[in-house]
Amino acid sequence: MINIKENERLSMLNHSCAHLMAQAVKHLFPEAKFWVGPVIEEGFYYDIDLGDKVLTEEDIPKIEKEMKKLAKDGKRIVRHEISKQEALEMFHDDPYKIDLISRMNEEDTVISCYTQGDFTDLCRGPHVESVKELKHFKLLKFSGAYWKGDAKNKMLQRIYGICFENEEDLNKHLQELAEAQERDHRKIGKDLKIFMSHDLVGKGMPLWLPNGAIIRKELENYIYKKEQKLGYKHVYTPCVGTVDLYKTSGHWDHYQENMFPMMQVDDEEFVLRPMNCPHHMLIYANELHSYRDLPIRIGEFATDFRYEASGAVKGLERVRSMCQNDAHLFVRPDQIGEEFKKVVELILDVYKDFGIKDYKFRLSLRDPLDKEKYFDDDKMWNEAEAKLREVLNDLGVSYFEAIGEAAFYGPKLDVEVKPAVGPEITLSTCQLDFLLPRRFELSYIDNEGNKQTPVVLHRAIFGTFDRFTAFILEETKGSLPLWLSPIQVNIIPVNNEYHLEYCENLQQELSDYRTNLDSRNEKLSYKMRESVINKNPITVIIGQKEVDNKTVSYREYGSEDTKTVTLDEFKEMLSKRILNKD
Ligand code: TSB
Ligand code: ZN
């Protein structure tokens, strides 16, 4: 989908359209006061204080109508430059503008205003010449937004919109938006009964329904087997730790704003854990290790809790309670390259199995000039960064480098993907860490009998099961491959009276697979349509011919063809496809 911010002309159109919207709002609600109205990737928005008025669905077409009328009037958009004093006088009764102006520095800022007819707004510009150019727009949605994004401040009302050069581009975009909304995992998750949420449980705390639980269990089994083959040892640890544990790890000082607050229990102070690394450090430290034991790979499907801003929480994609497909790999410095390579290969292998093609590798490196942000050990950084690059080049994967984006404790590789709606997200991650092993005083004995400190690789292939499920639902538009599908085979008798018994036997025969027998007294066409709506990968239809010949007739999702086979052939087809992750 188009990124409005990346196109100069469209940015200008959208910015001017935000002003046009503000003018229309002012006409309809004269008490309106305006905060900021920036251009964003998806178009524009304006944050507005409407006093006691709360916007409703009916207001949006009214605002659009007024915008059309104003655009038709065709007033010119005129720029004036004024001094800070003049600006303060001009907007003296508008606390939002006063807030902006008082933070401007007179010496190096030209304060500019733009006027169109009876409406003037403080703005840096640039704008189109006349509102006449703003013909092809649409207001998309509205929501509440705290002033300056701070929940302690007043809630303003934000209206989003988009503007194009011509009607054709606008319609194409609206069509793409509708398709994206259809693909949004929040819609699919609801329609296919995969997850829900409830105010009584809390924001960002999804409840996985039986269908979702099947998907999750399949994902767990899948990655567990892969990791086991690669020598990972899986553990279970509690999802709380003491404040002292997180003081030792450094999270208490550096990550506290992302954590739930502390709980006092008897004389212990607990936090819900935001990460599992400290627990795994303690498991490593539980035994003495020789250089020959390394790498040691400790994996866990571990539940974490993080404070995410309420506006950022999104379906399964960004949650406050999540389960990571986590592992910490304890390696000798000479093993960094080889172990990192195995992680990247595992990522590639998994993405191939899931048919994920549209992703970017981002290699986040330190800014060598920034001595404050990064843990100080030039030699360690230079060697590690060179090693990571070398591995990526050897593997022939394309990646981009992000200087200054590394974590304090080491460089990292993230995989970025684009969800149906909203900005890019990180799926897989692999982070090198020189620091945590030192904070936990971890060691191994080298070949000369001396104590050495291992390096840790933090890695999550799925990221979290939550985010990965969200992504896979969007990638497949809810039509999951056979092996992941909550229902694999939906069996429909043509006529319950004559064919149900055969179907019941068939269901028993297929007890190794996840089946549903639709024995409701509904019309065949209705049940078939519903089977497609539910995205069942295989729908079996049993009529008299199948009963007489002891056969199975079935349709695959997305196909109108019906195939007829024997029961053994049917079972073989299912097993083969499940095995091949087809
Ligand atoms: C990989 N300590 C490391 C771990 O060892 C760690 O926690 N890394 S992380 O902070 O990057 O998180 C791992 C992955 O979790 C991310 O790559 C991302 O895919 C996923 N994730 C992070 N925050 C959320 C969230 N709020 N909701 C869903 N998934 C998330
Ligand atoms: Zn970690």
Walk me through what this model shows.
- The strands form seven sheets. This protein has an eight-stranded mixed β-sheet, with helices on both faces. Strands 1, 2, 3, 7 and 8 form a five-stranded antiparallel β-sheet that branches. A five-stranded mixed β-sheet has the order 25-24-26-27-28.
- Helices cover 36% and strands 25% of the residues.
- Helix 6 (185-191) crosses helix 14 (465-475) and helix 11 (336-353) packs parallel to helix 12 (378-395).
- It has 582 residues and is α+β, with helices and mostly antiparallel strands.
- It has three domains: 4-176, 2-Layer Sandwich (Threonyl-tRNA Synthetase, Chain A, domain 2); 195-476, BirA Bifunctional Protein, domain 2; 489-579, Anticodon-binding domain (Rossmann fold, 3-Layer(aba) Sandwich).
- The chain has 18 helices and 28 strands.
- The structure holds 5'-O-(N-(L-threonyl)-sulfamoyl)adenosine (TSB) and zinc ion.
Q: Work out the number of β strands.
A: 28
**Within the largest sheet, what's the order of strands?**
11-15-16-23-20-19-17-18
The average pLDDT score comes to: 94
List the uncertain runs: none
Outline the fold blueprint:
Blueprint: H1 8-28, E1 33-34, E2 39-40, E3 43-49, H2 59-73, E4 78-82, H3 84-90, H4 95-102, E5 111-116, E6 119-122, E7 136-146, E8 155-164, H5 167-183, H6 185-191, E9 195-196, E10 207-208, H7 210-229, E11 233-234, E12 240-242, H8 243-249, H9 251-254, E13 263-265, E14 268-272, H10 277-285, E15 296-305, E16 321-331, H11 336-353, E17 360-365, H12 378-395, E18 399-403, E19 412-417, E20 425-433, H13 436-439, E21 444-445, E22 451-452, E23 455-464, H14 465-475, E24 489-493, H15 496-509, E25 515-517, H16 524-533, E26 538-542, H17 544-549, E27 551-556, E28 563-566, H18 567-579
Parallel strand pairs: 11-15, 17-18, 24-25, 24-26
Antiparallel strand pairs: 1-3, 2-3, 3-8, 4-5, 5-6, 7-8, 9-10, 12-14, 13-14, 15-16, 16-23, 17-19, 19-20, 20-23, 21-22, 26-27, 27-28
Helix pairs in contact: 1-2, 6-14, 11-12
The structure holds 5'-O-(N-(L-threonyl)-sulfamoyl)adenosine (TSB) and zinc ion.
